[in-house]
Amino acid sequence: MTRSHAATVASPAVVTLLRVLAALSVLVIVIQGVTAGEILSRSATAAMLHSGGAVVVHVLTGLTAIAAFLVVRATGGPWWPPILAACLFVVTFLQAYLGSHGVMAVHVPLAMICLVGAVWVLVWSLAAGRTRA
After folding, report:
1. pTM for this one?
2. CA angle, corner 100, sides to 25 and 66, nearest 5?
3. Can you tell me the distance from the alpha carbon of 130 to that of 133, in angstroms, rounded to the nearest whole number?
4. Are 22 and 64 in contact (CB under 8 A)?
5. What is the phi/psi pair of residue 130, to 5°?
6. Given its phi and psi angles, is residue 76 left (phi above 0), alpha (psi -120 to 50 degrees) or beta?
7. Which of 50, 66, 73, 75 is 20 to 30 A distant from 108 in Cα terms?
8. What is the pLDDT of residue 7?
9. Distance CA 45, CA 5 (A)
10. Distances from the Cα of 53 to the Cαs of 25, 65, 100, in angstroms?
11. Among residues 92, 87, 122, 90, which one has the least CA distance to residue 107?
């Protein structure tokens, strides 16, 4: 069976879910940066929030990867966004592991890479949902 040349449309609910998850991923990663800065001033509350925020980042990036896959599968769009989102999900675990073991020389640059990746997925999500097959 061949695809027609008409545009294929993903479910508006799935596209909206992708956009919300991608935006929340970026927001929580930015908040992680804020709590990290507060940890430098030896705030116990910030350390607790940073640790809990890591779990939220894992959940959001994982759900974003799933939503990106569903949108691409429905639209026939490019595969790099869900692959990037899945890689981001995996890297968040490596990043958290390194942070919890005090390897800040790698933890902090990986945090920047996570932020850039999450923003990239967010920007793509804003254009996602309709692509030429």
Report:
1. 0.89
2. 30
3. 9
4. yes
5. -145, 120
6. left
7. 66
8. 54
9. 55
10. 11, 18, 13
11. 92
Encoded amino acid at 78, one letter: P
Contacts of 39 (CB under 8 A, 6+ apart): 46, 47, 50
Residues 6+ apart with CB under 8 A from 89: 58, 61, 62, 64, 65
Structure-block tokens of residue 37: 């800065």
Q: How far is CA 86 from CA 45, 60, 91, in A?
A: 30, 11, 9
3-state secondary structure the chain: CCCCCCEEECCHHHHHHHHHHHHHHHHHHHHHHHHHHHHHCCCHHHHHHHHHHHHHHHHHHHHHHHHHHHHHHHHCCCCHHHHHHHHHHHHHHHHHHHHHCCCHHHHHHHHHHHHHHHHHHHHHHHHCCEEEC
CB of 89 closer than 8 Å to CB of 68? no
pLDDT in tens, 115-129: 999 999 999 999 986
User: 96 with 58: CB under 8 angstroms?
Assistant: yes
Q: Provide the token pair at 104.
A: 């800040």
